[in-house]
C-alpha cells in the first residue's frame, strides 16, 4: 500500500475493497501529512497483526518533531493537518496559527499517544522479502550497493523511477542494453512519486 497521507476513508476503502485478508501488509510510507486523519490511520494500521511499515519523508518529519519538539522546516508541507489530527483528540483543534511561511501549534510530542510515537520511530527504511522483492518509499542509488546508503536516500531519492521509465521508453529494445543496478531485485515497489498513469 502506497502513501496514505492522513486519508483514513481511503485507507478503509482500500482494505475493504482489496482481497487483503489481514495476513501481511507492507505499507510504503507517508502515513502523515495531507488530510487531518493521521491518528485514525495509525490506529487502523496498528490493528494489522503483520504490518511492515516503511518510513516515508513525511513520517520522518513527524518523527523529528516527536524526538525534538521542533517542527522541521519542511513540515509546512502538510504538517498542520497532522497536528490538527492529534489536537482534535485533546479538544484543541483550533489551536493552530498558520502564516505564509509556516505555522505554530499547541501540540507537544507528549500529546501523541505512546503507541504512535513508537510506531513512527520504528519504521523500516526498506524491506526485502523472501522472493528478493524490494519495498522502499522513494528509491535508492542504483549505482551503489543497496544496503548501507544514507537513510534519507531511501525516503527521498526519486531518481530510480524516472531512470526506469526512460530505459523502458527508449533503451530496452537496443541490443545489449540492460538497466544497470549494482544490487538486483526481483521486483521493486515504491511510493513517494505520483505516476499519473
Rounded mean pLDDT score: 89
CATH architecture of the largest domain: 4-Layer Sandwich
CATH superfamily of the largest domain: Metallo-dependent phosphatases
SS-derived structural category: alpha/beta
* Rg (C-alpha, Å): 18 Å
Kindly report the oligomeric state of this protein: single chain
Number of DSSP strands?
7
Work out the helicity level: 25-40%
> At the third CATH level, what is the topology name of the largest domain?
Purple Acid Phosphatase, chain A, domain 2
How would you sum up this structure in a few lines?
The chain has helices spanning 8-17, 38-46, 57-68, 79-89, 114-121, 151-156, 160-171, and strands at residues 25-27, 51-53, 96-99, 102-105, 126-128, 134-136, 188-190.
Output the keywords.
three-stranded mixed β-sheet, 2 domains, globular, Purple Acid Phosphatase, chain A, domain 2, alpha/beta, 197 residues, two-stranded parallel ribbon, single chain, 12% strand
Model description:
There is one protein chain. The protein folds into two domains: 124 residues, 4-Layer Sandwich (Purple Acid Phosphatase, chain A, domain 2); 59 residues, no CATH class. The longest helix is centred in the N-terminal third of the chain and has 12 residues. It has 197 residues and is of the alpha/beta class. It is 35% helix and 12% strand. It has a three-stranded mixed sheet with strand order 5-6-7, with no helix packed on it. The protein is built from seven helices and seven strands; from the N terminus they run H-E-H-E-H-H-E-E-H-E-E-H-H-E. It is globular. The model has no long low-confidence stretch (mean pLDDT 89). The relative contact order is 0.15.
